[in-house]
Amino acid sequence: MSETVNTFEAQQEGRPTGPLVRGYEVIIGFETHAQLSTASKIFSRASTAFGAEPNTQACAVDLALPGTLPVMNKGAVERAIKLGLALGSHIAPRSVFARKNYFYPDLPKGYQISQFEIPVVQGGTVSFFLGEELKTVRLVRAHLEEDAGKSLHEDFIGQSGIDLNRAGTPLLEIVTEPDMRSTAEAVAYAKELHKIVTWIGICDGNMQEGSFRCDANVSVRKPGEKLGTRREIKNLNSFKFMQQAIDYEIRWQIEQIEDGGKVEQATVLFNPDTGETRAMRAKEDSADYRYFPDPDLPPLVIATDWIERVKAEMPELPRAMAERYVRDHGLSAYDAAQLTQSATLAAYFDEAVNAGATPKLASNWITGEMARRLNAAEIGIEAAPVKAQQLGQLIRRIADGTLPNNAARQVFDALWTGEGSDVDAIIEAKDLKPMADTGALDTILDEVIAKNAKNVEEYRGGKEKALNALVGQVMKASGGKANPAQVTELLKAKLAA
């Protein structure tokens, strides 16, 4: 529950505008709560495991009972350092915890321990592709804080239940500048941030369980005008709902202004059943929370050698891996970004290449045929029936001329459906080897030329596309066994005679 101040005109000078919606520019900033993957809470030893019976994992420290004192979880701090290193942020050598005072039924202390004036992670950027365009969103900060409990409304008629299991769970709240200019850009940013926190292992990213929750601050304005009044959409826990909620909120704000009304600053909730947002409460600003330094917690001091130790243990980051793919494998920046969408996908690509696949062909198959099949089956790459070693073997047979593309797809289909597990055995069983009898191929060429006089005439008249039609006819007549490159060259020679 951060308070991104809505006075960013200076920072917005020179920022690119996005597509206009009914003549209005859309301004979006994000506040994301990433639950840190520690086994215990941020200031106590109580468990953070998901799914326990209500109120069985909240200890006296989480409830701030008299005589208890919070003790900082070292693992939570290390995860904050990892995020700062991953995003190119400044890691504050000294940061301060504060009490954020407000009443809520599931906040037993009556305050939340957070960071305000000096957060642990400051600045940084998140870069990602929107289509083939590289976008960059600037970060304001990422600060450590504790989660509140949870109010339960569905199971109690006329009453609310309180589950305090989440109270004290460690969070990193990651706050952006209002740099996003469309719903698509906002969702792409959220997906990239989700990839980063799961890649470096600081958060499990489970949105259904609340481990990765996004709040979107949305406003609209006419181009060149001051920033409009923002409304904060709380607790978006799926990318699909995120898109629907922001789209609805943009339309609502524009209609409100066009009808002569005024957008009031507010916190709103999205109802996926109706597809609408509704105001929950007036949006507070930082003054409403009466922040003051927490008297029970000393400043958090992070020594340089601690940062260096954490840095030495970091995995290769996705952007560094993508740059390596471009440099070492000759892939485009876009293809490299697609292959580093997850650590498991990148590992699959690496294994296929190590199995002998040419990198470009491996990239094409993974982001093309493989991605299509995975999406249709609604599974991830880790559950793909075609293993990386098998794809590597398949691509080797394409590269050495054993398999034309259409025959390769037949082999891939057999691997996918479990009809076979060895590429060479499938090729033999399905008799997919290319034609070795040049005399038979020569006969097919003559027959195709004789039967397609119009295409022959057009090609000889200068229409290069007519040759493709002839190649297609030869491939069809050969049952896909002819080599397309060889067919093309032989056809050109015959038609030039």
Automatic annotation (TrEMBL):
Residues 347-495 form the Asn/Gln amidotransferase domain. It catalyses: L-glutamyl-tRNA(Gln) + L-glutamine + ATP + H2O = L-glutaminyl-tRNA(Gln) + L-glutamate + ADP + phosphate + H(+); L-aspartyl-tRNA(Asn) + L-glutamine + ATP + H2O = L-asparaginyl-tRNA(Asn) + L-glutamate + ADP + phosphate + 2 H(+). It holds the Pfam family GatB_N. InterPro entries: Asn/Gln-tRNA_amidoTrfase_suB/E, Asn/Gln-tRNA_Trfase_suB/E_cat, Asn/Gln_amidotransferase, Asn/Gln_tRNA_amidoTrase-B-like, GatB, GatB_C_1, GatB_Yqey_C_2, Gln-tRNA_amidoTrfase_suB_CS. One of its GO terms (molecular function) is ATP binding. Its EC number is 6.3.5.-. Keywords: ATP-binding, Ligase, Nucleotide-binding, Protein biosynthesis, Transferase. SMART domains: GatB_Yqey. The keyword Cell membrane does not apply. One of its GO terms (biological process) is glutaminyl-tRNAGln biosynthesis via transamidation. The keyword Amino-acid biosynthesis does not apply. It is an enzyme of class 6 (ligase). Heterotrimer of A, B and C subunits. Allows the formation of correctly charged Asn-tRNA(Asn) or Gln-tRNA(Gln) through the transamidation of misacylated Asp-tRNA(Asn) or Glu-tRNA(Gln) in organisms which lack either or both of asparaginyl-tRNA or glutaminyl-tRNA synthetases. The reaction takes place in the presence of glutamine and ATP through an activated phospho-Asp-tRNA(Asn) or phospho-Glu-tRNA(Gln). Belongs to the GatB/GatE family. GatB subfamily. This is Aspartyl/glutamyl-tRNA(Asn/Gln) amidotransferase subunit B. The lineage of its organism: Bacteria, Pseudomonadati, Pseudomonadota, Betaproteobacteria, Burkholderiales. The gene is gatB.
